[in-house]
């Protein structure tokens, strides 16, 4: 159940960033968001990307878990040890963060601007 909880948390983080951050950007325009290159804008985007990549890794591991459960039923007990699932939970979180870190460097930033 750790991976399902992780998927639910990632969904909540993505919902939060999309709903509140984007809604504030629509309501307050540039007064709230400031510069397109501000740290505030990149941190929200970073958290959203962390949640997205962690979601992708957790969903992939869950699919692999289901595959092992159905096709390789004899090996399921080896994969479903509690300590192993907790390690996989932590590694998928770290991999999600690792996949998002390049977006923090200036060379990989995407500028989202309404004007020319």
From TrEMBL:
This is G protein-coupled receptor. Keywords: Membrane, Transmembrane, Transmembrane helix. The chain crosses the membrane at residues 20-44, 51-73, 79-101. The keyword Membrane applies. PANTHER family: G-PROTEIN COUPLED RECEPTORS FAMILY 1 PROFILE DOMAIN-CONTAINING PROTEIN, SERPENTINE RECEPTOR, CLASS X.
């Amino acid at each position: 159940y750790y991976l399902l909880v992780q998927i639910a948390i990632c969904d909540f983080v993505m919902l939060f960033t999309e709903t509140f951050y984007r809604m504030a950007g629509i309501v307050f325009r540039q007064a709230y968001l400031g510069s397109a290159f501000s740290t505030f804008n990149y941190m929200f985007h970073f958290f959203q990307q962390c949640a997205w990549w962690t979601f992708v890794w957790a969903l992939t591991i869950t699919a692999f878990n289901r595959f092992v459960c159905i096709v390789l039923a004899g090996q399921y007990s080896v994969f479903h040890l509690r300590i192993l699932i907790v390690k996989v939970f932590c590694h998928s979180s770290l991999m999600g963060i690792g996949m998002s870190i390049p977006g923090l460097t200036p060379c990989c930033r995407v500028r989202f601007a309404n004007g020319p």
